[in-house]
Automatic annotation (TrEMBL):
Residues 1-22 are annotated as: Disordered. The lineage of its organism: Eukaryota, Viridiplantae, Streptophyta, Embryophyta, Tracheophyta. GO terms for molecular function: protein dimerization activity. It comes from the Eukaryota. It comes from Glycine max (Soybean). This is TTF-type domain-containing protein. Residues 83-177 form the TTF-type domain. Residues 11-22 have a biased composition (Low complexity). InterPro entries: AtLOH3-like (IPR055298), DUF4371 (IPR025398), HATC_C_dom (IPR008906), RNaseH-like_sf (IPR012337), Znf_TTF (IPR006580). SMART domains: ZnF_TTF.
Length: 717
């Protein structure tokens, strides 16, 4: 076709632009991923470099994101004449609908001219605001002259942007005017599809089925769920599936993905709106999914407008490798996509992986080089787990206890037959104990249990192992007695006999109950630290309280008191002190003065003394309650610096438990049967699945508008 027809180019277009335009027509069309487009205009390629049929889709994606306006960026200065000048962020308020700033090149651009500028030649500054970039920071009037009059190239490009985002200006609407009845049917059909998709997202369920043909017995969750309301509501049945236009049923996989993406974007925007321009901390961790791809999860920790601390899952990003530089680049791209800036980070929370918390080349160090105020806190729960692992390995009798438990698992639970035997014995034991009134009954009590293996990287697993061993002790002994008598060979019978002697030994029983009590104290601390609203001061106080008073809990004969109990406590105390030395830094010690239980004794100003003696604040127990009370009474406006200090203290991350919850959710959303789930699709599903409380507040109308504006639709509203 290109041999016979040649598109007419604007007469004032440069010859180089003409060549690039023609070459773009002949280039092979490739799949584009709108999620990977750079937000910074300095990193973008020319709009003419894209395939012609894809350009409107790309333009619409950029217009939905809006101009790149990093208002909180530390703009660099350059010498112009005899003065140092820099970009003024207040210009975003005056020229906010088109002005962009490129952090990459330290220049300003025009978004609408980038999208449509090639149609108007050299008018209004030529390529200054499109390719080269504006740098005359001392000549603000050039921005106004770029806008020009009503018929300037800039305003024509701006009107083209508005027309592109206005459905009524699309060629489909002009050619095919739809009646109000058709529009209403389309809205109802779209609403039903959105409702079904919202349900699947909240439950973390798959959408598609193995066979979605009309003759299939199971067409997949989405189609089957869509059919359910149709079969029970005649008005819906008239609008969906077979009764809808064959080419407009809104059930195609692309439609489903667009709706999910629209919902995820609105959920993320709601989180950013709640964050506002406040300071925040990041919590980052990485794990491998079911398809052996490295996924990095990012959560934000900030103080909301009510003065409460919240942690929100922000996104999942696939990284090709787990080096610190790759992780940092992935964070930069995600922040740039959503208009966040690293300069607003005031806290970092990771585990002990070297690529995360390395002093010289870790992710922590890379962010600190760019933002020295991003204070790093090692995950408290992870440090606590390290102390428990050290006790379990460094004390001979405790290590022997957990080795014995592992052997029990291999012997008692080594086959399905023995596992069923153990379960049956435990059920009979519980039934008899309930009949005699030896154990309490109630909702949630006496659930079916099994022996668990202690895992060094699984929080609380050592304590859970000992609890289950105590609960199932009688049943385990009964099973070992059976194996001792009826084992298939002499080795099995001998092993069972040896285990029985060890289980009946006093040293074993004493060590078992000792470690249950010691680990029980640490387990309470671990559970408290994993709360999303936990603050750094309370975490420090919890650690101190657990370190005190442990040595007076148990007394027995000298051997067990000194030789066993005291040594276990000493090892754990030493490990706690070794791993929690980071919390004794000057910053955290200074933060402790904000605790209202100290009556703000470190402040000596008269207004703060009056503030501390106020009746409304006398019963507060922590900085979390103090922050909420300040907002509730409106005194965060009267004492802005105190409120700022409270925010800085509360946003410091305590634990990475949010990341563990995210990876647990990832195993639900991307399971063995959904192992080919695309990265962007998985991230959208996870955002809506994890942040249900935000997702539930988003109305269908907002989702419909986002869905309609994503691309040209056959249906009109």
């Amino acid at each position: 076709m290109n041999r016979f027809l040649k598109r007419k180019l604007p007469s004032n277009e440069q010859q180089s632009s003409s060549k690039s335009y023609e070459s773009s027509l002949q280039q092979q069309r490739i799949e584009i991923n709108l999620e990977d487009f750079p937000l910074d205009l300095g990193k973008r390629i020319k709009i003419l470099a894209y395939y012609p049929n894809d350009r409107d889709k790309i333009r619409r994606a950029y217009l939905q994101r809006g101009p790149c306006q990093p208002t909180l960026h530390n703009f660099s200065q350059r010498k112009i004449g005899k003065s140092l000048r820099r970009f003024c962020p207040s210009w975003f308020n005056e020229f906010g609908n088109w002005l962009e700033y490129s952090i990459e090149k330290d220049v300003a651009f025009c978004l609408c001219c980038y999208l449509f500028r090639h149609d108007f030649g050299k008018q209004s500054g030529g390529d200054t605001f499109v390719i080269e970039g504006f740098t005359n920071w001392n000549k603000k009037e050039r921005l106004s002259s770029h806008v020009g009059g009503p018929n300037s190239a800039h305003n024509i490009a701006w009107r083209k942007c508005q027309d592109l985002m206005n459905q009524n200006q699309h060629i489909e609407v002009v050619i095919s005017k739809q009646s109000e009845q058709v529009r209403d049917l389309y809205r109802r059909r779209l609403t039903v599809s959105i409702d079904c998709i919202c349900f699947l997202l909240k439950q973390g369920l798959a959408f598609c089925g193995h066979d979605e043909s009309t003759n299939s017995a199971n067409q997949g969750n989405f189609l089957e769920l869509l059919r359910f309301p149709a079969e029970h509501n005649e008005s819906i049945n008239h609008d969906v599936l077979e009764n809808a236009p064959e080419n407009h049923q809104l059930i195609a996989p692309k439609i489903q993905k667009d709706i999910v993406n629209a919902i995820a974007l609105e959920t993320t925007n709601a989180i950013i709106t709640d964050l506002r321009d406040e300071l925040f901390a990041i919590i980052v961790d990485e794990a491998r999914d079911i398809s052996n791809k490295e996924q990095m999860a990012i959560a934000l920790r900030y103080v909301n407008k009510k003065g409460s601390i919240v942690e929100r899952f922000f996104g999942m990003v696939h990284v090709k490798d787990i080096t610190a530089l790759s992780l940092k680049m992935a964070i930069d791209e995600l922040f740039c996509k959503h208009g966040l800036n690293i300069s607003r980070i005031r806290g970092q929370g990771y585990d002990s992986a070297s690529n995360m918390q390395g002093e010289f080349s870790g992710l922590k160090s890379l962010i600190l080089k760019e933002n020295s105020s991003a204070f790093y806190v090692h995950c408290f729960v992870h440090q606590l787990q390290l102390t428990l692992v050290a006790v379990a390995k460094n004390h001979i009798q405790v290590a022997s206890l957990f080795n014995l438990v592992s052997t029990l698992l291999n012997v008692v639970g080594g086959s399905c037959k023995r596992h069923d035997m153990l379960r049956e014995k435990q059920i009979n034991y519980v039934r008899k104990a309930l009949g005699k009134g030896e154990i309490p009954s109630g909702q949630g009590l006496n659930q079916e249990t099994s022996l668990k293996r202690a895992v060094d990287t699984r929080w609380g697993s050592h304590y859970a192992t000992l609890i289950n061993l105590i609960l199932m002790y009688s049943s385990i002994v009964d099973v070992l007695e059976i194996i001792k008598e009826d084992g298939s060979n002499a080795d099995q019978r001998a092993e069972a006999n040896g285990l029985l002697h060890l289980l009946e030994d006093f040293d074993f029983a004493f060590t078992l109950h000792l470690m249950k009590n010691v680990l029980g104290i640490s387990n309470e601390l671990s559970q408290a630290l994993q709360r999303k609203d936990q603050d750094i001061i309370n975490a420090m106080n919890l650690g101190r309280s657990r370190c005190r008073g442990k040595a007076q809990a148990i007394t027995t004969e000298h051997y067990y008191r000194v030789g066993l109990f005291y040594t276990v406590v000493d090892i754990q105390l030493q490990e706690l002190n070794d791993h929690f030395t980071e919390t004794n830094t000057q910053l955290l010690l200074c933060i402790d003065c904000l605790n209202p239980t100290n009556l703000f004794s470190t402040f000596d100003k008269a207004r703060l003394i009056e503030f501390a003696n106020n009746v409304e604040f006398s019963s507060l127990k922590g900085i979390k309650n103090l922050s909420e009370k300040l907002v509730e009474t409106g005194r965060h406006i009267v004492y802005p610096l105190v409120y700022l200090l409270l925010n800085l203290a509360m946003i410091l991350p305590v634990a990475t438990s949010t990341m563990e919850r995210v990876f647990s959710a990832m195993k639900i959303v991307k399971n063995r049967l959904r192992n080919r789930l695309r990265d962007a699709w998985m991230s959208d599903c996870l955002v809506t699945y994890i942040e249900k409380d935000v997702f539930n507040k988003i109305g269908n109308e907002v989702i419909i508008q986002r869905f309609q504006n994503m691309k040209s639709r056959r249906g009109q509203l």
